[in-house]
Each structure stands twice: as C-alpha cells, then as structure tokens.
Amino acid sequence: MKTIVLFLIIFIFISCNNNNQNEKAVYGTIDTSSILKVNDENLTISNQKGYSHENRDTSFSSKNITAEGTISVYKFSSGLAIFNENGKDGFINTNGEVEIPAKYDGVGNFSEGLAYVIQNGRYGYIDVKDHIVIPIKYHTATDFENGIAVVTENGKQFQINTSGEIVTTNYHQFQNNNFYKEGLKWEEKNKKTGYVDRTGKFVIEPLYNEYEGKYRTGDNIPGYFSEGLAAVRLNEKWGYINHKGLTVIKFEFEHASPFSEGLAAAKINGKIGFINKKGKFVIQPSYTYTGNFKDGLCRASEKTKFGFIDKSGKFIIKPVYSYVSDFSEGFAFVKVDSLEGYIDQTGNWLWKTSRK
Questions:
Q1: How many domains does the chain have?
Q2: In this structure, are 277 and 305 located in the same domain?
C-alpha cells in the first residue's frame, strides 16, 4: 500500500520529559481466524504490513475477507476503512463486508466524505459509493482537511476544494494555516517569538525566547495556545500568557506544557507536577515523565516504568509498562514484557499480541 500521507502512526509529542519515549509507530498482528474486538466504527483489518491504533468496540471477523499474513488495524472514517487483497486496496464497512472492491493501487482514508485513490500512478478522489468525484489525473494527493487537499500536476503544486476546483497555488500560505491555534500563530522576529493573527499582524509582540516547538504541530507542543493560554519562555523560565499577551501564570518553571482538561504539566526542581490555571500545583511535582491528560487520565512515570494517573495524582493503572500512549476514546496502546496491545481505563486488555 502506498502511504503518501501518514496512516495510523501514533506520534507522542513530549515536552516535559527528561527520559523521552521515542516518537514511533506501534505494531501488532492477529491471525486470519481471529476476531478483533473494537468499539464504534473505528477499525478494520488488512493483510498489508501496517500499524495499530487505539481501538473501540465493534466486533470484526476476518471471515469476510480472504487474507494471509499480517493483519493490520486501521481507523474507520465515514463508516469505511482500508483493506488490501492481492496487492490492491479497497474499503470494508463496519460489518467487515467489502463495500468498495480491492481494485486500486493505493488509497487514502476517507476524510470529509472523500478518499484519494491511485490507478496507474495517478491520483483522484472517490466518494463512499465509489463514484469518481475528482478525476484520477494528479501525480500526488493528500487527504482533505478543512475542505482543502494538496495535489500536484505537471510539477506544480496547488490546493483544491472538494469539487476539484483550484483554491490557491500558495502552498506556504496553506501550510501556515496548520500552525494556527485558537486564531493565533507564533511568529519569530529578531530571534524573539510573538503571535500574529490571520492577517499576519502581531497581536502579541515578539518578546519571548525561541522554543523547540517551532515547525511542529501536535497536542503537547509548548508555544501553541490551548484552553486560552500558551506556555512561553522568557529569560530561561516558563510561564503562561493569554490571548492579549498578559502574563497569567508567572515565569518560574523549568519547563511547561499546554493545558489539557484544565491542567498543565510543569517542571520545577527537576520534577514534574500539574498546575491549574491559577498556577497552583494541584498534583505535586514527583514525576520524571508525564504526558497530558486525556479522557481523565495521564501517562506518567516516577522511575523507569510507565502507568496512568488520575487528577488526584494517584496511579489508577500501575506503572508496569515499558511504553504507553495517551488514552483515546477510552483505550491506550501499551507494551509490557513480550506483550503489546490496547488496555481500557481499568487496565484490562482489550486486545493484545506477543511480540518477538
């Protein structure tokens, strides 16, 4: 399967961490007689080498698809998900039935009702009924996001809407839109960072130090606004400002992360805890590693193993894992000893496999 866009890769962006878990993809296999239990309409199976993602809870059986080899787990979108058969890609529905036959050289996930498909080295877009909505003529294509996709034709790159009409040929402008959070985007001037609105005007003057989050997007990157505040660095200390550039939480931390579910990870004296929006530690600094709160839980470590804490700082799921992801829709990917798979918020396995 051709992967022009990044399918099914879980990136963990870490800011408050001395012992970072590496950004990586996670893997798993099941045999073709297995039943994979997932929740809602989020996953499917394929015989292509691939990646596993957080899953939900609908049952799928491989009985509807003849496949040999590695089974891959993919997220559903628009009720459909990718499968591969005999080197070709198609889509199945939430009953595990073939909805769009495996006839394409490659496909993308459905996004905003459309998915790109590849035939004879060219890209176009189909709808969920397998109707060709945008002609198969481009040399490259991406998934749609906010009504726009990036395509290339005859060496030129431009953006199209869901009708196939050209919107803009200014890719830099389009790409920059991805860095806006809550209507503001960081901007550097004279090696200092401030914030501009969508007209490019500085609404928060460039007073702050450069930071490692530039040119990156994600949920846990310092510098981006989240829940009305942004973590910024001034004279080697971190604090928080609001949309007007006013200091809301004073600059006293060794590091700081964006707010999530009302709390933010902040480091002081070499340990990480969680503060509220008044800057008060509500979970005392005792951790060597944390993520951000998702679904009421947060991955954390006090030594070398990882578990999950609640908003009181108590380990709800014991730190026994060598790797953990954030919870997403009720499940997290973990690794322990020779096992890897998904656990629920009580720490029970939803699905697991042995890894060599």
A1: 3
A2: no
User: pLDDT for 170-190, tens place per residue?
Assistant: 655 555 554 678 888 888 888
Stated pTM of the model: 0.58
Structure token pair of residue 259: 């707010």
| The two three-digit tokens of residue 209, written as one number | 């130090």
Query: Are 218 and 319 within one domain?
Result: no
**Residue 268 domain flag:** yes
Return the residue matching tokens 């003057």.
Answer: 205
Q: In this structure, what are the phi and psi dihedrals at residue 239, rounded to the nearest 5 degrees?
A: -150, -165
Backbone phi, psi, residue 310, to 5°: -95, -170
Residue 155 three-state SS: coil
| Closest by Cα among 304, 303, 262 to 283 | 262
Which of the 8 DSSP states describes residue 21?
Answer: P
Same domain, residue pair 317 and 352? yes
For residues 287 and 302, state if they share a domain. Answer: no
Q: How far is CA 335 from CA 220, 302, 304, 318, 352, in A?
A: 22, 17, 13, 13, 9
Size of the chain, expressed as the number of residues it contains: 356
- C-alpha 28 chain-centroid distance: 18
Per residue in 269-320, pLDDT (tens digit) is 999 999 999 999 999 999 999 999 988 999 999 999 999 999 999 999 999 9
Measured CA to CA, the distance from residue 103 to residue 88 in angstroms comes to: 5
